[in-house]
# Entry
Amino acid sequence: MQDKNKREFMQTLSASIAEGSFVKATFGNYRGNDPHLQKLLIRRLDTKKGRRLFVLFRFDTRDTAKNYDIQDGISLLAEKLGTEFYSGHLFTLENDFQLEIGKKGKSRLNRAKPTFNTMPETAHDRQKNNSVDPSSFFLKALGITGDSGKVKPRQHSKWKQINKFVETIGNLFDEAKINPNRPVRMVDMGSGKGYLTFAAYNYFVNKRGLTVEIIGVDANAQLVELSNSIATSCDFSGLSFRTGKIADFDIGRADILIALHACDTATDDALFKGISANASLILASPCCHKEIRPQMSHKGSFLPVLKHGALLETQAEIVTDTLRALLLESNGYKTRVFEFVPTEHTPKNNMIAAVRRNDSEKDKAAKESFLELKSEFGIKSQKLESLLS
# Structure
């Protein structure tokens, strides 16, 4: 016979979900057979497929997230409560409920005033509230947070960058109208230490409940090996890293292509890969704009600017990224260049975002502007243009 307190707890949980007052729940005091499992964190999600129950299995060295149909999720929780987990904490807009089950099966159910008086965000397709949970295990595995789940003092700039990136890619994902009902494929060209690659995977899987495959590509074999090891420890089964050069790597199908650490013309190689794959979303944060600086010349009003090394360098960066944006536009993308937060590799903080237009028609006016700008500064060749020719 089921314990009446457990039965009341589960009935209240089920009713609160049905009525819309459910905020979240936590199952703890684990006494099952898995030596690493610690607790379950439960919340409700509203997806395009309907209402789902999100369950995060928190282990001591990783997190695993799963989405369930409401009834399947409730059945799973009822099965585990009192057999593996011996405490449950339910938060609703009306009351909080705390269930404790003793070793001999005796239980106690306490009711308290609600902790929450407003409903948290539950929709996947909102454009805000994309911040990363600092207790996420991948952050600890990457050295961003410590055992307590707090961001390490020296990692605050990286923490800021991760959150800004997640917010940016979440908003652009919605703008690009990428089909969430099939596996989303993303390639990170020049993934480096993988901070943002891991953040993207965590966001799409654990925040939005999507099925994704993300591949990080980097020429540094040691970083690739380390990143794959961390992905395994995080149980990020859809995330992998491969050794290779951007120009040589065959990306196959890609809904999203990002290149946030590519140096000089490697950015052009990555952009070309994204355009060729007909990617719905391309994100690049260029650095080391070396290609066109030696070519730049001007006999008109810009001559005083180009006489000074520091100003010439800045002008070369502006012209290079403008040319790239115009080429993306001429190949069917809506583009914008905006300020991003600095990375640990470079003080440059501009990002090029390109969303494929529905009509995918080539923009002749953008190509004409590209040619005019090249001529204005005496530029003979530009890598992305050469690749697209």
Summary: The chain has two domains: 4-112, 137-388.
